[in-house]
Design brief:
The protein has about 525 residues and is an alpha+beta fold. The protein has helices at about 40-55, 65-80, 90-105, 110-120, 125-130, 145-155, 160, 200-215, 220-225, 230-245, 245-260, 295-300, 305-325, 355-370, 375-385, 395-400, 415-430, 440-455, 465-485, 495-505, 515-530; strands at about 165, 170-175, 175-185, 190-195, 270, 275-280, 280-285, 290, 325-330, 335-340, 345, 350-355.
Length: about 525
């Protein structure tokens, strides 16, 4: 089944601007959206506030710090007494359970952090990811009286005046907001996102406490050993601060939809935000329908090509980042579904990566260097993204990490050798000052989601062929632009399949690699690492 919408003579006028649905409840006119006035200033102010919220201080003011220390201290303390000396996997699982319960007790900010961790498989320990996944479905909803108060205060009219109907029970409740189904007096079905009334106050207090507490966690607990807690707090502060103003989210929806249209990416649909019913705490948007991402039976019964969904997802996500410098920063199964025509609908644009031109070009360099087998180029791109200090000796890093030779297949190493090699690499990277900046973390987190999507929708897809397809697509579609922007020779570009095999750690004689093959290798490596 094609992923492009059917062409017709009476296309909605706004499809020329953005990747929207074919049946518009209203037409988006970017120049006449009442809520967009002054948003550049709003976004700038929000970003300038973050350093102040997380600046180093002795002890944060207020009583919130005592609550946080009590809950987290109890979680880590009991774990230290009871489970720390058990085998590694059991110990991590016990600590993860206690941290998840503490996060739920501490409320929206910590639940939101847990939700971000839950979509970071591969970035965080499996036990922590699995435990925090439960946060997604365990956030109590606000009473309808509270929802009514927020909606009426922000819209300046009663719910009855604004809507013909408004479901009292939410469709879903998350840490920052909850969503309700409603119908406008003009007959359009809409989704209404309503912010929890006290969440902004709690977020600002909690960020101060997190910033004060994070340095004490470095190297002290296993779930923090693979990440830099202060850097994680910084990334989290930047993402959650913009989520607190739904006008910024609505603008993200418009801009991502426009990016897809510019790139002729017809496999995605973004719901239209309402032209007037958007405020700091209320967002009214078009209602779309489709299959949940893990509804394999429903998607198959509709005759939808799951392999094409994956291909469209990978190309669309990477093109948005590398060509237009904007992408949805929080992909997970709850933020998208598959429509009847095979296109993917995206939701929840609170976390959206907006890159400077310099960082966008760094992502371009990273991809083209990776597919052409240039390790120094890859490290230079990571340096430009902020993952390595500006004065890093890239040639020395290549030599220290052994990137200038044929890599060793990790499945051929013994458990002791594998652990020793990982420790060596981590120590070297930390010694060079490696970190995970916001844009790179969101990019990697989305790649992790796509990895899981392949497992669900297309486990038999040939990963080597798909990577080569993406690289060739970029070279063919954007080759001249890439050549101008990053000094790339488009005429002699070839995909370095040996380099791609090396990146996966497989023998260069291997012709194809399915996700199932890759998962078998991962399971073997996990066993040898004691997971």
């Amino acid at each position: 089944m094609t992923l492009a919408p059917p062409e017709s003579a009476d296309q909605p006028a706004d499809l020329a601007f953005g990747s929207f649905s074919q049946q518009p409840p209203w037409i988006v006119d970017p120049d006449n959206l009442r809520w967009k006035a002054g948003l550049d200033t709003v976004r700038s102010v929000v970003r300038r506030q973050v350093p102040e919220l997380i600046k180093p201080r002795r002890v944060p003011s207020g009583t919130r710090v005592f609550k946080v220390v009590k809950e987290l201290g109890a979680a880590v303390g009991v774990w230290g007494l009871m489970a720390r000396r058990k085998d590694q996997s059991t110990s991590r699982a016990d600590l993860s359970l206690r941290l998840r319960k503490a996060a739920e007790e501490l409320g929206p900010t910590y639940i939101k952090l847990g939700q971000i961790i839950s979509s970071g498989q591969g970035l965080f320990p499996d036990e922590l990811v699995a435990e925090f996944t439960k946060c997604r479905d365990q956030v109590p909803a606000e009473p309808f009286s509270v929802v009514r108060q927020v909606v009426e205060e922000d819209l300046g009219q009663t719910i009855e005046d604004a809507f013909a109907s408004f479901d009292r029970e939410p469709l879903a409740a998350a840490s920052i907001a909850q969503v309700h189904l409603a119908t406008l007096h003009s007959g359009e079905e809409v989704v209404v996102k309503v912010q929890r009334p006290t969440v902004a106050q709690f977020v600002h207090k909690d960020l101060s406490v997190m910033a004060w507490l994070a340095p004490f966690l470095i190297g002290r607990i296993p779930v923090a050993a693979l990440a830099n807690p202060p850097a994680l707090v910084e990334v989290f502060a930047h993402t959650i601060s913009e989520e607190l103003d739904f006008r910024l989210e609505a603008e993200n929806m418009i801009d991502v939809a426009h990016s897809f249209a510019q790139l002729d990416q017809k496999g995605f649909v973004v719901p239209r935000p309402h032209p007037t019913l958007v405020t700091r705490r209320v967002l009214v948007m078009e209602r779309l329908r489709g299959y949940q991402f893990d509804d394999i039976e429903g998607i198959a019964a509709a005759g939808i090509d799951t392999h094409e969904i994956i291909r469209t997802g990978m190309v669309g996500f990477m093109e948005g980042a590398m060509i237009n410098g904007i992408f949805h920063g929080d992909l997970h199964g709850g933020n998208l579904f598959v429509m009847e025509d095979g296109r993917t609908a995206l939701f929840d644009f609170g976390i959206t990566a907006r890159m400077t031109d310099f960082h966008r070009k760094a992502f371009l360099k990273l991809m083209m260097s990776a597919t052409s087998g240039n390790p120094v180029g890859q490290l230079a791109a990571l340096r430009d993204l902020g993952a390595l200090p500006p004065d890093t000796d890239l040639e020395a890093v290549v030599a220290d990490l052994g990137l200038d030779g044929v890599p060793v297949d990790p499945t051929t190493l013994s458990a002791e050798q594998l652990v020793a090699e990982l420790q060596r690499v981590v120590k070297l990277l930390l010694g060079y000052g490696a970190r995970m900046p916001k844009e790179l973390m969101l990019f990697v987190k989305n790649l992790v989601f796509l990895d899981g999507a392949i497992a669900t929708l297309a486990p038999d897809i040939d990963l080597f062929a798909e990577i080569a397809h993406i690289a060739v697509h970029f070279a063919a579609t954007h080759g001249n632009r890439i050549a101008d922007e990053i000094d790339f020779d488009n005429t002699s570009f070839e995909v370095d399949m040996d380099g791609i095999r090396d990146a996966f750690g497989v023998d260069r004689s291997v012709d194809s690699l399915t996700y199932n093959d890759l998962q078998e290798r991962r399971e073997l490596i996990k066993k040898r690492l004691g997971h």
